[in-house]
Amino acid sequence: MPDVHDENDPRPLPPPGSGHFDYAGNQGLLVEQDTLLEPDPAKREEARSLWGDAWRDLRRRPIFLISAALIVLLLIIAIFPGLFTNANPRQSDLVHNYLRKPDWTDFFGAGWFGYDGQGRSIYARVLYGARASITVGLTVTLAVTLLGGLAGMLAGYFGGWADAVLSRIVDIFFGIPLLLGALVLLNAFTVRTVWTVAFALAFLGWTQIARVMRGAVLTVKQADYVVAGKALGAGTSRLMLRHILPNAIAPVIVVATIALGGYITAEATLSFLGIGLQDPTISWGVDISSAQKVIRTASFVLFFPAAALSLTVLAFIMLGDAVRDALDPKLR
Amino acid sequence: MGSYVLRRVLQMIPVFFGATLLIFLMVYTLPGDPIAAMYGDKAADPATVANLRHKFYLDQPVWKQYLHYMGNVLTLDFGTSFTGRPVSEIMADAFPVTIRLALVAFFFEIVIGLTLGLVSGLKRGSIGDTLVLVLTLVVISIPVFVLGYIAQTVFAINLGWVTATVQDSTDITQLILPGLVLASLSLAYVARLTRTSLGENLRADYIRTATAKGLPRRTIVGRHLLRNSLIPVVTFLGTDLGALMGGAIVTEGIFNIQGVGNILYKAINQKEGPTVVGVVTILVIVYLVASLVVDLLYAVLDPRIRYA
Amino acid sequence: MSSTAVDTGKPARDAPYQGPLLEVRDLHVEFKTRDGLVKAVNGVNYSVSAGETLAVLGESGSGKSVTAQAIMGILDMPPARIPQGEIRYRGQDMLTMDKESRRKIRGQKIAMIFQDALSSLNPVLTVGFQLGEMFRAHHGTSRKEAKAKAIELMDRVRIPAAKERVGDYPHQFSGGMRQRIMIAMALALEPDLIIADEPTTALDVTVQAQVMDLLAELQAEYHMGLILITHDLGVVADVADKIAVMYAGRIVETAPVHDLYARPAHPYTRGLLDSIPRLDQKGQELYAIKGLPPNLLRIPPGCAFNPRCPRAQDICRQEVPKLFQVTGPDGAELTGRQSACFFWKETLDDA
Questions:
Q1: What is the SS3 assignment for A184?
Q2: For the domain with range C22-240, which CATH number is right: 3.40.50.300, 1.10.10.10, 3.30.70.3270, 3.40.50.1980?
Q3: CA distance, residue B169 to nearest chain A CA (Å)
Q4: How far does B204 lie from chain A, in Å, by closest CA?
Q5: CB contact under 8 A, B149 and A180
Q6: ipTM of the assembly?
Q7: Mean pLDDT computed over C287-298
């Protein structure tokens, strides 16, 4: 009897939220089942741990190495933007710098990427803008993973009414597209910081992880080693933490990594619509939004923050893809 | 099958009320006074404000407001916007526009997404496959609003093939570019999902059986592989039709299309509670109905569900 | 579909070909994996004649299934590769045939029964359709006629109420019934040879016997060759004519079924037989072959079985034993008996 989210239900997770800002839904689920065909001897080798195996595999993937390097660089920029420029991203000089074109000879200088409509260094703004995007992305991902993971674990493990309640709540959130919900929610706040935006996205996004976790726990719960652990008298917390969690977390990690890119996009979109981050926070989304007024005359004002944003999202999605491939034995 | 449909419909009811309540709460109970917002910086006459508050049920407890609102919704009365225009009238103007846009996008999503997915899924590891993977990765990474500007700049401003904004939304040719932009992310998904699904099913035991039966390759692909592989794709497409309408807000903004997204965006900025809740309620209904249709479609396509 | 197929029905069976139906010669199969080259099959030879049952015995990873898939031509290539060997069907090497001729042999001349009938049948098509597909694809039969033939087939494998159930889907049948459908499908075009890959492993013990009996009965009736792949010595004894024991991608012993049971000529076979629980040896400790099957990425030098063999000598660690002809105490060749052990004589004498 497949319920809406029955674990036997072979459908892919429909796109969470609006389907326009989450990248994780469809492919994440595929991690959950792994049936190996008997006759391939390559797969029947000595048992190795999934994680050790995944790590060995990851290190060999150029996609992983490139995206990981990019993310490390982005993190450094986000934490120490001053390392890469002396320019002040908030200093505006309308008299000399209004929409001044990029100066390619000014390597790593204030005028490298040109100046925006308020005479501010675009290069500096691109660097300083990384912090908001990365902070929102990481915070939301961490929050939804903890919150959704916990809820999904409890629902999947205990079943019964806990499961029924969670499933209905997930359904309800599912009916509200992420972007629409965030628009409505954020509108209530007159002052919006990265934390406000992160809260709104986490509030609307945790059900996605809860759903994935619940499915994974339900699958793992039936595994013989869990039943055996139970029969041997392992306590509830021990069963959950030692037996179920390590085996159910893989799909959650994959979905969360890919979703991270989606949250960054969502933040930028909200800021772009004027309902996300605001001054004095420097945000790529806000800069892209203000660039739209001058797009016909000075497209470079739009180009650099847009490229930075896309590159960041790309890095996280590539990382998620690589992790998924490494953790999903079926795709080997 | 009958009981399956009934169960699905019954499951939808609490979800519908829960989702609308959630939206309602977010609009009406969070800080920010909609009446004050109406007047902006102007000082309002306290009596008029009180009168307006009463008129919009804002002086009642929230649960009463919600019940009152839901009572109206069930009679298709979505209330009046602060400007005095019935919300249902505003929506009647905007929805057809968005539906047309969503359908154009949906068309691209199916045609381009499926084609790309089939090309890469059936020839894994080929140049075409790699190209599709890179292309979809890029499309997924570039936010829709950036993609919208790029498309606008290149095709409207530089090449002059189309007008930068949509003048007449009944003219389908004007909706092609916005439709493509709106569809971009979804079609990248459809392509990737199709590819993954084909890959999974190609390894399935029943495909091995079909080969062992000595069926010609086109029969194996056309009859056995596609039929199974497209089930998740079809269900994705179904839910996505609803999602496209909700996601139209950015695309409509860029191309200045007077659809639901635009209405909603303005209403949120002006804290027009009735319009926001009305539009979102309809979008949630569309979404839920789409999910229901998907479930039914799924039962038609997969006998394991039908006879469960 | 291909109504132009040259061989419709049985003409091939009546062709004046005298040799064995199927001959596998020095077959090698390897898989390219991330961890290196997996040598799954390393020079397998066997043959089957019409009406004969060959049991291929071995643990998982011994290459028995891979060999069967190579015969059927359903290996995924890549990652699989056949660097060497021949698979002759009625004297003609199938590995060098063009794809279309090969396809016409599949299902029509050589059919296969898989272990897990549930996953091996297409979940979204009715069993009637999947059975009828055989006739439609190979003989160009009409849809309606194919359905009638499907019902006939289902009757043939004794599925009750075939007429009513022809429109049902695989998941609506029990495990035993599904396996009967697999058998019916393999049988549909009355092939010369059926390869059954662990046909009863997934079934309940009581159902196992029924399905095995049915298979044996139909084989006798149609005078087909049968390759029975199994790891279950119990299944083999009743139905097989001869046995090939595989280990690490090689055949280590071949023998007529009763000879093998009575006097194994390879320590591995001996170990397998000794590890069967016996009622007359109650109270004794059950024998088990020590160690694990070899990693196919790193097959030990010499005889692959040497690390686990109680008889292993230096020569076993250095030289790969070929298949020796086994002779009786009088020096006369024992027909069909071969062993890939340097000490086959000693092993035989011990028995």
A1: helix
A2: 3.40.50.300
A3: 22
A4: 8
A5: no
A6: 0.80
A7: 77
